[in-house]
Amino acid sequence: MRIQRLDKDIKQNLLEDLLKRSPNNYGEYEQGVQEILDRVKNEKDQAIFDYTKKFDQAEINAQNIKVTEEEIKEAYELADPKLIEIIRKALKNIESYHKKQRQFSWFDSQPDGTILGQKVTPLHRVGVYVPGGKAVYPSSVLMNIVPAKVAGVDEIIMVTPPGKDGKVTPNTLIAAHEAGATAIYKVGGAQAIGALAYGTESIPKVDKIVGPGNIYVALAKKAVYGHVSIDAIAGPSEILVIADETANPRYVAADLLSQAEHDELASAILVTTSEELVQKVSDQVDGFLKELSRSEIIQKSLDNYGYILVADTMDDVIDIANDIASEHLEIQTKNPYDVMTKIRNAGAIFIGEYSSEPLGDYFAGPNHVLPTNGTAKFFSALSVDDFIKKSSIISYSKDALQNIHKDIEAFAEAEQLTAHANSIKVRFEAEAE
């Protein structure tokens, strides 16, 4: 990992470097993605079947595109019973956490007949995208479906690419079934996003699409936004560790590498005030690279976007952490809660040396679908809020409106919207005479 002393120039170069990883910088793929979306919109199922054969080498048709109960039963027979039990334990934690996020309708009435309120309604149908291919992430299945289920969404439609045999991996199916997916379809890539956004003969149109994917999926979600809602446009994974001289260098190194192994564009950054910690962490990283199975990917990730930054003060550390706005932020310092109160921008904050980032990925309960590429400055983790909508409630009695109708009319006339003013005025025209 490159070691640099933090200054103004290093900070600016680092921020620019990290932004290169954003899906917004991959415009050369947009035309190809749009062509796929247009074809799905026009040809529906046939386009889905053709693209699945082309990209996944699987023969999918109207008869086998939807996962059957028999396939789910087979998945349980093939899976490791211990993993099934772990999935259920994680599911319980995730569900418990998200239940605390639920919002409810409210109404406020006044003696003059004024009633104001907010009606909270779950979305009717949502689509959950689950990646396939080399990586299988049942944890992401849980993280995307559970908050939708807790919110009260009526239909949760999951899509995921099949293997060459036309089947979905057992662990993915089990996680989806345990979490409560309504239906599962064997389609991935940009074509799956198009199917969810526009609807086909087999796959119903949804109201919102959530879930991570590759660059084609990210750009497809960006392109269909407006036809449907989306959660966010996810970028590569990232971790930032804030540490001082009290941190365990072996823990810090291990946590940095836990994200670097995701892919070559992943970012792993340590920011510290301790010169001594820097070399110790660097040595531990080198040692781990000789042991870990994905060391080649990790090394490329560290070469591209791995940094150890040495700052003069903890205030400087906190400033750069807020500027980077990392997806995952670990605090391993003498007074971690004091540091935490000064953090404004982070997707998830892990406090203390026994709160390693994978704890959040799999088991603790908070959602691991988090804002990336600095978007933690204005986006939040996926939550129950993403699966509800809010309608304002307004009810006035005649007496309540009579007290203020002239104010409304004057306001409307000041904006030269005379029809607005008239809509209020006609209700009191008899009294005006």
Structural class by helix and strand composition: alpha/beta
Mean pLDDT: 94
Strand fraction equals: 15-25%
Low-confidence segments: none
Radius of gyration: 26 Å
The end-to-end span amounts to 83 Å
Largest sheet: 6 strands, parallel
Count of β-strands: 14
Total helical segments: 19
Which overall shape is indicated by the principal axes computed on the Cα atoms? globular
Helical proportion? Answer: 40-55%
Spatial order of strands in the largest sheet: 1-11-10-9-12-13
Q: What does this 3D model show about the protein?
A:
It is built from 19 helices and 14 strands. The chain is of the alpha/beta class and 433 residues long. Helix 9 links the parallel strand 7 and strand 8 (229-230). The termini are far apart.
Which features characterize this protein?
globular; 433 residues; 19 helices; alpha/beta; six-stranded parallel β-sheet; 46% helix
Helix-strand layout with pairing:
Blueprint: E1 2-5, H1 8-19, H2 30-43, H3 45-56, H4 69-78, H5 81-99, E2 106-109, E3 115-122, E4 125-129, H6 138-151, E5 155-160, H7 170-179, E6 183-186, H8 189-198, E7 208-210, H9 215-224, E8 229-230, E9 238-243, H10 249-260, E10 267-272, H11 275-289, H12 295-305, E11 306-310, H13 314-324, E12 328-332, H14 336-340, E13 348-351, H15 357-362, E14 388-395, H16 398-402, H17 405-414, H18 418-425, H19 429-432
Parallel strand pairs: 1-11, 4-5, 4-7, 5-6, 7-8, 9-10, 9-12, 10-11, 12-13
Antiparallel strand pairs: 2-3, 3-14
Helix pairs in contact: 2-3, 2-8, 2-9, 4-7, 5-6, 5-7, 6-7, 8-9, 10-11, 17-18
